[in-house]
Amino acid sequence: MTVQGISEGDGGMRWDVLAPDALREAAAAHAIEPGVGRTVQILDGRIVGADEQALRLLHMTWDELTGVTSTDGRWQACASDGTEVPGDQHPAMVSLRTREPVHGVVMGVAAPTEDGLGTFVWLEIDADPLTARDGALLGVMARFRDVGETPVGRRATQSVIRSYRRAAHEAAAQGERFRVMVEASSDVILEAGGEGVIAWASPSIRDVLGFAPDDVVGHPVVDLVHQLDRASAQERVDAVITGVEASGRDELRMRTVDGAPLWMSAAWRMLTGTTGESYGVLVSLRDVHADVERREALAHMAHHDGLTGLLNRDSAYAWLRAELQAAHEQGRHVGVLYLDVDRFKEVNDTHGHGVGDKVLASVGDCLTAAVREEDMVARAGGDEFIVALRAVPDSGAVERRAQAVLDNVRALSLVEASDVRVSIGLALDDGSSDVDALVERADSALYRAKRAGRDRFSW
Fold first, then answer.
1. Model confidence at 174, in pLDDT bands (50, 70, 90)?
2. Of 194, 222, 200, which Cα lies nearest the Cα of 212?
3. If you placed Cys at 142, which of 15, 62, 92, 393 could pair as Cys (CB 3.0 to 4.6 Å)?
4. Count: domains in the chain
5. 2: pLDDT strictly greater than 60
6. Mind listing the pLDDT tens digit for each residue in 332-343?
7. 410 falls within a domain
8. List of long-range contacts for 201-207, beta carbons under 8 Å, 24+ apart
9. Residue 167 domain flag
10. Among residues 139, 155, 171, which one ends one of the domains?
11. CA distances from 239 to 121, 195, 215, 221 (A)
């Protein structure tokens, strides 16, 4: 609610009901000046008083102006050099904060009218604190006049024009630098809109993934992700676009033009407008396929034997521990075959270590072919191997697997070393989770097989 009490006594000011009498009295002490508009703000910054000249200068109605503060985000103000002036730095707000006069400030102002357009005007502003008779701060009066057609205003306009020209030149230069960097970079850069649909793709996508930039525009960015990683990529895009995550980084498999997976490092960043709202996502993709393959190779080497490609001893024991625990919980049994190559030292001494390595690799292949996919085969070291059989019903099932191993090895036909044979020790878990004890029983059985004449299995 407003009161339009315009009279000779209050100097033509129009007051809101929030304005106390003491504030009106303090404002009346300031003389009226031709062509100068006046506004009065209370301690929280809200405008509660204005004269007709202020409304004309700001091109606002009384209803548009009353209750507005200088910190209202709809005010647009700049200094005479073109730099933005935030609301808390407007002269009236500075005067309220410091209780000191602020005079002679030239500022370009576009007021927040209802049509959202406003009218820009150069104003020279004086702000003075308004106090009660006892010195208590009541508010602030701002007095301002249009200086757009004065030398001061013209210089300010020229300064702003020069500033905008410099900004435009710098923006053009930055755009050119960005274009050169993008075209020279091997990284793939994608810009997608609010629905995750690609709006722009860098030229490097042709060299890296095989697609022409225009071919991917208009398609969802996740269409470029290999199906193995597409679901997780969609979650990331959704999180960034909705603002749940402002940025993120993943390694995922992208899809080349022929459908092959290519490991890439993906950096995701939310794109925001001037008011902070999200309008899309920027994706930067870097080829890390060789790095991932090296890491996977190193990880494989840490758990596998380099000669045979089978699990190494440590990995075999870890597998057995986990399987024994699961077997006991589910009422199953685990069978173990512990074997070595008969007279392997003679093979090395007679034919050399190269032939010996070939024999070991061939025996490893025989073991893998003799067991099921869910079973485990490992090289324990030297010419010794471990086979673990998952979920065997009885000792007969273990013996049948052992016989299949003997048959496969006997069928080996190596030019350099004929008559390759193995001896096998068997063990079936007794309900204990002690891996060492289980393997030791199979190892003891191996030596019984050797003493019995080799090329056989024994319990």
1. low
2. 200
3. 92
4. 3
5. no
6. 899 999 999 999
7. yes
8. none
9. no
10. 155
11. 43, 12, 26, 14
Q: In terms of domains, do 310 and 450 share one?
A: yes
Please give the distance of CA 385 from its chain centroid, rounded to a whole number. Answer: 46
Q: Which of 56, 58, 12 is nearest to 32 (CA)?
A: 12
- The answer to whether residue 166 is domain-embedded is no
Which range (42-56, 223-237, 273-287, 398-412) has the least confidence? Answer: 273-287
146 and 203 together in one domain: no
262, 292, 322 — which closes off a domain? 292
pTM above 0.85, yes or no: no
Identify whether residues 27 and 107 lie together within a single domain: yes
Give the model's pLDDT for residue 399: 95
Length of the chain: 459
Task: Return the HEC string of the chain.
Answer: CEECCCCHHHCCEEEECCCCHHHHHHHHCCCCCCCCEEEEEECCCCEEEEEHHHHHHHCCCHHHHCCCCCCCCCCEEEECCCCECCHHHCHHHHHHHHCCCEEEEEEEEECCCCCCCCCEEEEEEEEEEEECCCCCEEEEEEEEEECCCCHHHHHHHHHHHHHHHHHHHHHHHHHHHHHHHHHHCCCEEEEEECCCEEEEECCCHHHHCCCCHHHHCCCEHHHHECCCCHHHHHHHHHHHHCCCCCEEEEEEEEECCCCCEEEEEEEEEEEECCCCCEEEEEEEEEECHHHHHHHHHHHHHHHECCCCCCECHHHHHHHHHHHHHHHHHHCCCCEEEEEEECCHHHHHHHHCHHHHHHHHHHHHHHHHHHCCCCCEEEEEECCEEEEEECCCCCHHHHHHHHHHHHHHHHCCCCCCCCCCCEEEEEEECCCCCCHHHHHHHHHHHHHHHHHCCCCCEEC
Tokens matching residue 187: 């990284």
Chain segment 268-287, per-residue pLDDT in tens:
888 887 667 788 888 989 99
Does one domain contain both 259 and 331? no
Measured in degrees and rounded to the nearest 5, phi and psi for residue 180 equal -65, -45
Is a pLDDT exceeding 90 seen at residue 423? yes
Any idea what the CATH number is for the domain that residue 21 is in? 3.30.450.20
Give the structural domain span for 241: 185-292
| Residues of the chain above pLDDT 90, percent | 51
pLDDT at residue 8 in the model: 38
Mean pLDDT, to the nearest integer, of 304-324?
91
pLDDT of residue 431: 78
Residues 107 and 56 in one domain: yes
Whether 286 and 317 map to the same domain: the answer is: no
pLDDT in tens, 425-436: 999 998 777 899
Average pLDDT over residues 409-435: 86
In a domain, 161, yes or no: no
